[in-house]
Amino acid sequence: MQYMLLIYTDDTTEPAPGTAEFGTYMQRYMEFTQEVKDKGLFVAGDALEKVNTATTVRVRKNEVDTTDGPFAETKEVLGGYYLLDCKDLDQAIEYAAKIPAAELGSIEIRPVMVFD
Amino acid sequence: MVIVDPAQAVIAQTVKHEWGRLYASLVKYLNDFDLAEEVLQEALVAALEHWPGEGVPASPRAWLLQTARRKAIDRIRRRRNFAAKAAELEVLLELERQEGEMTTDDTFPDERLKLVFTCCHPALGEQARVALTLRTLGGLTTTEIARAFLLPETTLAQRLVRAKRKIKAANIPYKVPDPDQWQERLSSVLAVIYLIFNEGYTATQGGSLTREELCGEAIRLGQLLTRLLQGEPEAAGLLALMLLHDSRREARVDGHGGYLTLEQQDRDRWDRGRIRAGITYLDTALSLRRPGPYQIQAAISAVHARAAAFADTDWHEITLLYDKLYELQPSPVIKLNAAVAHSFHRGAAAGLRALEQLQTELHRYQPYHAARADMLKRVGATEAAIEAYKSAIQLSSNQVERDYLERQLRKAAGRGGQS
User: Fold this and answer.
1) Positive or negative, the Cα torsion across A23, A28, A34, A37?
2) Looking at residues B218-245, what average pLDDT do you find?
């Protein structure tokens, strides 16, 4: 069963690029990705550009409305995701807790919907 | 209704005692909480039809399980006409394979530990965990649970539906958790049981102080868990704690339904049987030498249970236990209790000094004001005591508790009131 692990972080609490902490942080991400690949759980996973690059699109009355920025102003924003194939929620929780950002922000686990 | 028919009496008893075990087995076979409930319900209806005429079978539990499984086969077969899913076919094949096997009481394994861990999964909301545990393990009906929690039945039914839907959609597993998740998951199970007990014991809302059926249900669940988890001292610790608290249930209320403090209680009314059972479980737990918050709280309760009169209480022991508890669980509420014990050990003035540092964190917490009022009264600061009682009354949501506080307020103000 596939689970989407959505990584929410607050930019200001994550290590800044160029610092030694950032190097360690990235190293841990690479190790995590390797681990889920080795275990055969990895389906997909990416980091996203910062939220100030986001564009929001709505269609209302057949008109496309494009605006800058995210839909809502919250401190923690979506920064990346993993799509994993886990046997159950407990396994998904186990791996969500291993994502480095779990210690700074939060991971939202969403089961991927299966259409019968 | 008076039950006259022996078959009906057996059915009623079986429902009460075997529901959780039957339900747990059915969920294991069927991997579906709703289907398990439906077929178990149908099996009970069948029992009501057949047992009065044909006599009660030798093993009511086995009969009910067999019947429920047959009902499940029928249902899945009917469903297959619409959509044959691989998972359902697998369940069906397994059920049909088992149909030939005779089930007796001894041959079907107890699956309730899996059920309790699924129902108390932290991915479910706290209230959903409580409702689901009472429904599936306790066998309480939706109506009974709603009544116990003073909720509209539709609200409670909705809560159960949502919880079961999440179990299915998110694939919350039906299993005993792995070692690395064990501690978090066990504490969630214990917390749910203690929450049920406390809801019954302190009845946070409404007009009566306790709702016995919830206390009884929580103790039953605690006994079950202690049996299933013999190496876990906190399970026995929680059971000991509940039994010791429950031993004082009758004595906490006076003839008019008013609340009595430990000091005012008639200790002859304490249930000695419960105290003995509680202390036995506590000793078993402590002998495993892995202390935890429930064991320490039970130990505190046991100190009270051992004191022949309030004046004989070993307050020194109690303050030490609170210190130990605070080490494991640093919370201002524990500090508050420690301050109360301190006030009996070293005097009310010392207790008040200990309370000072808690003001910011606990100024919205009723027991803080009630404890402070009592200590102020004991040092003779009547005006301040009255103000503190007023704050406590404002924050109280239970009528019995409020009545008690109002009586104390009147006494402090010297305007009479009953003793």
Assistant:
1) negative
2) 95
- CA B174/CA B159 separation, integer angstroms: 20
Task: Kindly give the residue spans of alpha helices, DSSP state H, lying in B247-314.
Answer: 272-287, 293-306
Beta-carbon contacts of residue B165 (< 8 Å; ≥ 6 apart):
none
Q: Which of A90, A109, A111 is opposite residue B173, by nearest beta carbon?
A: A90
Question: Residue A102's pLDDT is what?
Answer: 96
pLDDT > 50? residue B378? yes
Q: Decide if B86 contacts B54 (C-beta within 8 A).
A: no
pLDDT in tens, B337-352: 999 999 999 999 999 9
Confidence tier at B86 by pLDDT (50, 70, 90):
low
Q: Are B302 and B244 in contact (CB under 8 A)?
A: yes
Nearest to A15 by CA among A111, A100, A110, A112: A100
> Among B321, B122, B353, which residue's Cα sits nearest to residue B241?
B321
Domains of chain A: 2-47+75-111 (3.30.70.1060)
Contacts of B123 in chain A (CB under 8 A): 89, 93
pLDDT digit string (tens) for A8-67? 998 888 898 889 999 999 999 999 999 999 999 999 999 999 888 899 899 999 999 998
Could you give the CA distance from residue A33 to residue B304 in angstroms, rounded to a whole number?
55
Spatial separation of the C-alpha atoms in residues A110 and B97, rounded to whole Å: 36
Residue A107's nearest CA partner among A91, A96, A94, A95 is A96
- Among B253, B299, B302, CA closest to B276: B302
User: Residue A89: which of B83, B85, B173 has the nearest Cβ?
Assistant: B173
Q: What is the mean pLDDT of residues B85-96?
A: 70
Are B136 and B119 contacting, i.e. CB atoms less than 8 angstroms apart? Answer: yes
Residue B276, helix vs strand vs coil? helix
C-alpha B139/C-alpha B141 separation (Å) is 6
Chain A residues with CB under 8 Å of B171 CB are 1, 88-89, 111
Question: Scanning every residue of chain B, which has its alpha carbon at the shortest distance from the alpha carbon of A1?
Answer: B171
B99-104 contacts at long range (C-beta below 8 A, 24 or more positions apart): B99/B69, B99/B70, B99/B73, B102/B62, B103/B62, B103/B65, B103/B66, B104/B59, B104/B62
Q: Model ipTM?
A: 0.87
- In the prediction, which pLDDT does A51 show? 86
Output the pTM of the full model: 0.84
CB B197 within 8 A of CB B212: no
In chain B, positions 99-128, which contact chain A (CB-CB < 8 Å)? 121, 123
Model confidence at B419, in pLDDT bands (50, 70, 90)? Answer: very low
Q: How many CB atoms lie within 10 A of CB B38?
A: 17
